[in-house]
């Protein structure tokens, strides 16, 4: 991981994607979508993607790590968007803290 992070322009999410998809190493790539959704549905209470990654690793079984990125990114792009989430289309709204305070 450190070797990848030393490359200019490579951050945590990109490095983890290379490890996961390129080398099959279990990890949780956390981007803005994974970070936002994890906080909105109460899986974590964190301020940064790195904090989110560290907390998700503690609570999600390793066999599901790859799915976190794949499902949350798509969900974050299509439903749980940053500025105008489509709460009416959300199938997990019953576990969402965001809808209670903003939706």
Describe this structure as you would to a colleague.
The protein is an all-alpha fold and 103 residues long. 52% of the residues lie in helices and 0% in strands. The chain contains 6 helices and no strands. The chain has helices spanning 2-5, 12-23, 32-40, 49-59, 65-78, 98-101.
The SSE order reads HHHHHH
Overall, the morphology is elongated
Count of distinct strands:
0
CATH superfamily: Helix-hairpin-Helix base-excision DNA repair enzymes (C-terminal)
What is the CA-atom radius of gyration, in angstroms? 14 Å
Question: If helices are DSSP runs of H or I spanning 4 or more residues, what is the number of helices?
Answer: 6
Task: Please give the CATH architecture.
Answer: Orthogonal Bundle
Poorly predicted segments: none
Quick structural gist:
With about 100 residues, the protein is mostly helical. The chain has helices at about 1-5, 10-25, 30-40, 50-60, 65-80, 100.
Features:
mainly alpha; Endonuclease Iii, domain 2; 6 helices; elongated
Topology:
Blueprint: H1 2-5, H2 12-23, H3 32-40, H4 49-59, H5 65-78, H6 98-101
Helix pairs in contact: 3-4, 3-5
């Amino acid at each position: 991981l450190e070797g990848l992070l030393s490359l200019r322009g490579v951050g945590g999410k990109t490095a983890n994607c290379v490890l996961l998809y390129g080398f099959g190493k279990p990890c949780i790539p956390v981007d803005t979508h994974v970070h936002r959704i994890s906080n909105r549905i109460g899986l974590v209470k964190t301020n940064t993607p790195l904090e989110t990654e560290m907390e998700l690793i503690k609570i999600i079984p390793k066999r599901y790590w790859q799915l976190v990125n794949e499902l949350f990114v798509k969900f974050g792009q299509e439903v749980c968007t940053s500025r105008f989430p489509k709460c009416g289309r959300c199938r997990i709204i019953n576990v969402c803290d965001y809808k209670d305070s903003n939706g």
